């Protein structure tokens, strides 16, 4: 039986009940009706429940999803999705630079950023979906704690591997002994798509342009959560931005954040422009805090791309495009404070997990908080940043990728990244996007550099 994940109404309903409670609605009466009818809870780790629901439960789930969408939210005013309303709530919204960007990244810096994103993603792939305690036990069993190298199965006691098996899709390509180039991952597919987006439509692309590109170039089987539902909605004749809201309980998860890097790389020194591009991209699939996570990341990267700021200034710039009373802004501020207070990062992670225990492990709020904490605690150091981000045990490959891309960009040069991280990638990226399979990171850097406004670019 083909049990397609992230689309079954009976599974979406459980996630929507959680999302409704988090975004300020009152879903309790609907939750009681669902439970009384025999409906199941949302799966904590998998994308689908083991068995197909009855026809009655499936139809009921569709109806209840629509009822939940109609519930008013008490957070609507402080967590808008429309860009003009977001800007109105941000007193520190960045000013646009006058004339040319003073400092743009070199191709070497962009190659470092692409490599750093890939390395951080690769580090996190084998332990994606595993609980925090399992990540810690697996790393410690081989003396790799704190994380300073890729995970390995060599030397791990068999009972531990039986209790906590590696991510089945990733172990054959992402454990240290198996790495042979960078394997395909959605955390790299989306930056590739955004290169195509800017090549074809320029900096003034629309959300509809993003939708058309996805329909042309993005295999549905390579999408998950909010992105898979947005594609489903597009194929059902639903247009943006309703694609982000219609029966999509994952609209505040991490998917838009992992698409943000190119928007930052191509707007050096202009975090407002980076955030605005990220917003147009994100609103195909996400709302509110899911969109803010993308804007925060793009603005942080735009500041880092100039080479003129340390990680702490870059993160402050990222927060300047996020409504300060939003849940995301509060979570990031809290995470940065924890990272500054505790010398032991495990303590920071434990507190973040306790604070965000109601959120799914793929939700944007805890993951963005973890990324900010990791970068802060490591003071922007590359190995320290990716190790901390992955050791947080949330969406390990995505958090590692974003932290790695930012920290590597700050180094300014791929030669500054330790060879034991980059050499196994062999300057080769696997992907199912367009005709880019096997592309080198040096080529990606050149393509990205070519998309920066000419007055901002440097040789």
From TrEMBL:
Assigned keywords, A-Z: Magnesium, Metal-binding
Instruction: Report the cofactor remark.
Output: Binds 2 magnesium ions per subunit.
Tell me any Pfam family this protein matches.
ADP_ribosyl_GH
Query: What does the record give under GO molecular function?
Result: hydrolase activity
Q: Where does Mg(2+) bind?
A: 395, 397-398
Required co-factor(s) are: Mg(2+)
Superkingdom of this entry's organism? Bacteria
The protein's name in its UniProt record: ADP-ribosylglycohydrolase family protein
Q: Which organism is it from?
A: Streptomyces asoensis
């Amino acid at each position: 039986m083909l049990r397609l994940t992230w689309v079954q109404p009976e599974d979406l309903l459980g996630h929507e009940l959680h999302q409704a409670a988090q975004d300020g609605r009152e879903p309790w009466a609907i939750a009681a009706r669902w439970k009384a009818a025999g409906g199941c809870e949302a799966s904590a780790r998998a994308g689908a429940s083991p068995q197909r629901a009855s026809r009655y439960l499936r139809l009921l789930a569709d109806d209840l999803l629509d009822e939940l969408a109609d519930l008013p939210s008490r957070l609507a005013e402080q967590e808008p999705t429309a860009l003009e309303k977001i800007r109105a709530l941000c007193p520190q919204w960045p000013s646009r630079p006058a004339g040319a960007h003073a400092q743009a990244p070199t191709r070497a810096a962009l190659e470092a950023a692409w490599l750093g994103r890939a390395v951080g993603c690769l580090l996190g792939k084998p332990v994606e979906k595993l609980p925090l305690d399992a990540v810690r036990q697996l790393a410690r069993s081989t003396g790799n704690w704190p994380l300073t190298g890729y995970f390995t199965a060599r030397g791990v006691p068999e009972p531990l591997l039986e209790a906590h098996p590696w991510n089945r899709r990733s172990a054959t390509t992402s454990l240290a002994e198996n790495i042979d180039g960078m394997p395909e991952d959605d955390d790299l597919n989306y930056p590739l798509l955004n290169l195509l987006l800017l090549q074809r439509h320029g900096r003034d692309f629309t959300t509809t342009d993003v939708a058309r590109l996805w329909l042309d170039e993005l295999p549905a089987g390579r999408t998950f959560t909010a992105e898979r539902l947005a594609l489903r909605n597009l194929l059902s004749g639903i247009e943006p931005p309703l694609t982000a809201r219609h029966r999509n309980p994952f609209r505040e998860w991490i998917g838009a954040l992992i698409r943000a890097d190119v928007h930052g790389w191509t707007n050096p020194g202009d975090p407002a422009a980076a955030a605005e591009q990220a917003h147009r991209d994100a609103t195909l699939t996400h709302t509110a805090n899911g969109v803010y996570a993308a804007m925060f990341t793009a603005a942080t990267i735009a500041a880092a791309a100039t080479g003129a700021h340390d990680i702490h200034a870059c993160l402050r710039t990222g927060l300047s495009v996020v409504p300060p009373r939003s849940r995301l802004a509060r979570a990031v501020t809290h995470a940065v404070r924890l990272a500054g207070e505790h010398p032991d990062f495990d303590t920071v992670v434990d507190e973040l997990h306790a604070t965000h225990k109601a959120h799914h492990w793929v939700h944007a709020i805890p993951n963005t908080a973890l990324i900010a904490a990791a970068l802060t605690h490591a003071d922007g150091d590359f190995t320290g940043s990716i190790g901390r981000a992955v050791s947080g045990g949330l969406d390990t490959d995505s958090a590692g990728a974003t932290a790695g891309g930012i920290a590597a960009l700050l180094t300014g040069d791929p030669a500054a990244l330790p060879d034991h991280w980059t050499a196994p990638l062999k300057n080769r990226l696997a992907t199912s996007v367009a005709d880019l399979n096997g592309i080198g990171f040096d080529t990606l850097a050149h393509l990205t550099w070519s998309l920066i406004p000419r007055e901002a670019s440097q040789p």
